[in-house]
Recover the amino acids of this structure.
């Protein structure tokens, strides 16, 4: 199973659509917040995909959870935007929350900086920002592949975004 992960699109619906189109093998698309509205109508544009999102600090639809756990092929994924876990100051709180849920993968956004590391049994990924990267990051998104051999996580730079 292939999963596309994006975050912090901040009104750039065109980039969200371009990202999904360029990853036609992804069966699931996850958005980690900050302008989930960019993501909402993609369900109609791509009816063959599963779409799941969480609310960021720039989203105001209280019907969207701030964090959630989803399972794909027996792998639990903890998703949160990250602002309520203080991810700009460290990852301990969000990693603890993911472990408490029994997750193998922890996804977050908010910082606009991509991150992809394995921490003692937990894959931790921030796909960065499609629209407004910060620091040394470039516009990017994440890919997760879950297969019988294991889990693979990657950050992909989003070239020719404008």
């Amino acid at each position: 199973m292939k999963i596309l992960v994006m975050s912090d699109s901040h009104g750039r619906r065109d980039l969200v659509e371009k990202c999904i189109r360029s990853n036609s093998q992804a069966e699931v698309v996850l958005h980690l917040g900050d302008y989930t509205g960019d993501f909402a109508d993609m369900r109609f544009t791509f009816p063959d995909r599963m779409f799941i999102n969480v609310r960021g600090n720039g989203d105001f639809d209280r019907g969207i959870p701030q964090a959630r756990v989803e399972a794909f092929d027996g792998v639990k994924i903890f998703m949160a935007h990250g602002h309520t876990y203080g991810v700009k100051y460290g990852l301990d709180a969000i990693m603890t929350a993911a472990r408490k849920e029994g997750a193998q993968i922890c996804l977050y956004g908010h910082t606009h900086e991509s991150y992809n590391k394995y921490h003692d049994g937990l894959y931790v990924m921030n796909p960065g920002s499609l629209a407004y990267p910060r620091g040394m990051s470039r516009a990017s998104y994440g890919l997760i592949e879950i297969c019988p051999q294991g889990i693979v996580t990657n950050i992909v730079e989003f070239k020719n975004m404008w």
Summary: The mean pLDDT is 93. Residues 111 and 159 are 20 Å apart (CA to CA). Residues 13-21 form the longest helix (9 residues). Strands lie at 2-6, 28-31, 50-53, 67-72, 75-80, 105-107, 115-119, 122-126, 140-147, 150-157.
